[in-house]
Amino acid sequence: MRKAFVGGTVIDGTGAAPQPDSTVVVEGSKIVEVSQRREEFSPEALVIDVHGKTLMPGLIDCHTHFAPWIQWLINDQGHSLMFLGAKTTYFLKGVLESGVTTARDLGGLEAGFVEAQAKGLIPGPRLQTSLVIISPTNGLLDCIPGVGRAISPQGRVAQAPGVPLPWCDGPHEARKKVREVLRYGADVIKIAHTGTPYDTKLAPDRPHFTVEELEAICDEAHKAGVQVNCHVMKSTRATLEAVRAGVDIIDHGTLLDEECVEEMAKRGVWLTPMFSIAHWHTNHNPNPAARKFNAEMLKEHLRSFTLALKAGVPIAMGTDAAFAVGVNAKELEYLVQAGMTPMQAIVASTGRAAKCIRMKDLVGTLEVGKEADLLVVDGDPLQDITVLARKECLSLVIQAGVPMAGPMVSQFPWKPPKYKDENWLWS
After folding, report:
1. Distance from C-alpha of 241 to C-alpha of 105, rounded to nearest angstrom
2. Fewest CB within a 10 Å sphere: which of 25, 44, 163, 405?
């Protein structure tokens, strides 16, 4: 059945000027028309009046975590794996309902969740996953929580099935680890080249990998045709090492200088600043010292972002949102507060985000031939960017042509979810 959304203002995700009183026609999973046609729809078409509303692409979160518990499984012994898996499916559904139709998980999500979403078993954003955050011994994820519960690559490890261990040391091990992670089903490689400012056992500005290890990781990943995301916080040296070694995306980038942004712009290295996680730690971290430290770091982060924006570094939206369900659109408010225009923030979260994660031919913009990932917003986000984070303003979320959430869902004929595998014995 064709669905024609008539009369809304189209923000297409390319950065082009908004088009009022427009029509978007969806057939199956695809967008088949973006125009200003009003009449002469076939009798079989479902025509939906969206006058006074905004039509825009579904949001894309280029850095989030749906199953962070997998990374610290040793510290979460109070729940069964099945309970934690159910918690992840709940998280996926909530994020989709908040308007995020595509997401890249950068640490924790087992590849089975990606397959389950793609085949229609569970609702959630269209997914990519890194499985783990590759790091060296005594790096970001080398958790030693206490006497008698130590974990190490050699043994006594709390490990989820389907997810490899994250550690490697030396360029040969690093290359082998990339191959292993890809064998487990990763779509992208995620590494950590620094710790975090709220980790008390590691200096936050210390680079973790050697340059040789970084180069081996990037070379092996690029041979396989996949990108490398690199976590870097509060270290210009670590950022420069990662960029020059060949990483594709800098995550956080809380301490950049002119040399960093010049190198990133020259090489086309993306930045996902993720103000959401910085604000969370500044306001909600249970450790008062960590809150104070992060408040100071946030000032540096804003200065770094301004340098990157001015230098022309490509920027995409990410949240690192492992702390709450369905708050991802709040990141657009933070991007605007940091100096982007509302249109720049929307494009960074749609068209440019799709380019960042190499899905620009499939999603990210309202163009003929693209997947029909579409939001109907009650309000104008160019005048008030906060409407995107207010659930009451999200009238409809469509993913691949299917109405998934929002009060307007009641206007569409209900169809039961269908598992996309005709050979499944239970169908």
Report:
1. 24
2. 44
- CB-based burial, 271-292: b 16+ in 10 Å, e otherwise: bbbbbbbbbbbbeebeeeebee
299 Cβ neighbours under 8 A, 6+ residues apart: none
Closest alpha carbon to 86 in 103, 67, 71: 67
User: Per-residue pLDDT for 254 more than 50?
Assistant: yes
Residue 422: count other Cβ atoms within 10 Å of its Cβ.
Answer: 7
Contact, 101 vs 396, CB < 8 A? no
Report residue 137 as tokens: 């011994």
On the 0-12 / 13-18 / 19+ scale of CB atoms within 10 A, 76 is middle
> pTM for the complete prediction?
0.95
* CA 256-261-266 angle, 5° bins: 155
Contact status, residue 372 vs residue 31, Cβ threshold 8 Å: yes
Residue 255 burial (CB < 10 Å; 0-12/13-18/19+)?
buried
Taking a C-beta distance cutoff of 8 angstroms, is the pair 264, 309 a contact?
A: no
Residue 386, exposed/middle/buried by CB under 10 A (0-12, 13-18, 19+)? middle
- Structural domains in the chain, CATH included, are 2-57+365-411 (2.30.40.10), 59-356 (3.20.20.140)
**171 — phi, psi (to 5°)?**
-65, -35
Tokens 């800098």 correspond to what residue? 250
Tell me the two tokens of residue 413.
Answer: 């004929």
pLDDT tens, position by position, 97-127: 999 999 999 999 999 999 999 999 999 999 9
